[in-house]
Amino acid sequence: MFNDGVDVIDTIQSNAKAGRIAFVGGELYDETLASIRLYDAARAIANYIACLFPENVSAFIFSENRWEVVAFYLGVRLFGGSVKFLDYTASEDNGELSFSEKLQQDFRGCELVLCAGKDLMNVFRGTVEKNVKIIVIPPARIPYNAISFDEVLQIRINRGLSLHNVCYSEKTSRLLRATLQSTGPAQGWTPQNSLCAVIAPLHQRVHFDIAISCILLGIPVLLATVHNLDGFMRTTRNHGIDIVSIDEPTLLTLKAKCDTPSLTVTTVLFEGQLTADLKDKLYEVFPRIRTLREVNEEFLAKL
After folding, report:
1. pTM for this structure?
2. Cα–Cα distance between 86 and 105 in angstroms, integer?
3. Which helix (H) or strand (E) holds 254?
4. Would you give the distance in Å from CA 297 to the centre of its chain?
5. Judging by beta carbons within 10 Å of its beta carbon (0-12, 13-18, 19+), is residue 4 exposed, middle or buried?
6. In what helix (H) or strand (E) does residue 277 lie, and over which residues does it extend?
7. DSSP letter string over 147-183?
8. Over 60: is that where the pLDDT of 105 sits?
9. Phi and psi at residue 287, in whole multiples of 5°?
10. Helical H segments across 7-133, by residue range
11. Which CATH architecture has domain 170-301?
12. Per its UniProt entry, which superkingdom is the organism in (predicted)?
């Protein structure tokens, strides 16, 4: 992921100089996060990792959709490490393996992990008997082998630290541009007055790619969480969301919680096969869709 092409960090820095917003978030989705904060956070993460590891690091992400996930990913890649996303939505019903055994299997090879405070117990269950460093997204009581994400951001950055390039192939960006152009956006449309809601989990590569692509294009991203979809529908009606990135499980959950359809969404990027039944469900939730596009890794590879 992101091995050649446009430099992600340089582009985010350019967006920061232009004063662009990277994310919309908060408990009520009423807060904005500027590109400069994402840029600084990625640099701070890389700086912190350099204090712990002389070279390379195997970092894992076990978190719902949050802007800190993107910052952590970029920071690890800046340092030159590798990042693995764990399936945050996996249930405890896992057939032959117990949930603890499944977690231990998933966390094999982990040296550094990002998680939210409420997920610390599952991280402990997965990293038992391993010397793993943990970055915790507050609020949380911080254990001995962990540090708060906010504390990491406060560590003085070593400007002389040698950093790696984090590059982007532009495949998803081209797809997104073409999709937006096909919707026939209203006169005066610019990426900056658009808003993309990524509802499907970021551990799925397609949706993470879409989030990064939007940020590079200057489109603010709202990262919704599957555990707060009812709140998402209630509090985002006036946000002017026009792009949604979604998959089948999230759509079914969203439809069950949806009491009023979203009337601003015109473009839906759907991971999976669009059956007639799924299309009907999408139009019930987003009745003003003008462009409906299937996206998956196979499709992106052909671009």
Report:
1. 0.92
2. 11
3. helix 248-257
4. 16
5. exposed
6. helix 276-285
7. EEHHHHHHSPP-TT------EE--HHHHHHHHHHHHT
8. yes
9. -70, -15
10. 8-17, 35-52, 67-79, 99-106, 120-126
11. 3-Layer(aba) Sandwich (3.40)
12. Eukaryota
Q: Give the integer Cα–Cα distance in Å for 250 and 272.
A: 12
- Write out pLDDT tens, residues 109-161: 999 999 999 899 899 889 877 789 999 998 778 888 899 999 999 988 887 88
Helix, strand or coil for residue 97?
coil
What per-residue confidence (pLDDT) applies to 233? 73
Element (H, E) at 229: helix 229-235
Instruction: Identify any residues that bridge with 268 across adjacent strands, giving them in sequence order.
Output: 244, 292
Tokens of 257: 């919680």
- Strands 82-85, 58-62: parallel, antiparallel or unpaired by DSSP? parallel
Q: Domain 35-154 - what CATH class?
A: alpha beta
Tokens 């002017």 correspond to 240
Q: Tokens 């662009």: give the residue.
A: 20
Residue 122 token pair: 């599952």
CATH 3.40.50.980 residue ranges for the chain: 35-154, 170-301
207-222 confidence digits (pLDDT tens) = 999 999 999 999 999 9
What does the pLDDT read at residue 59? Answer: 97
| Rounded CA separation 59/192 (Å) | 32
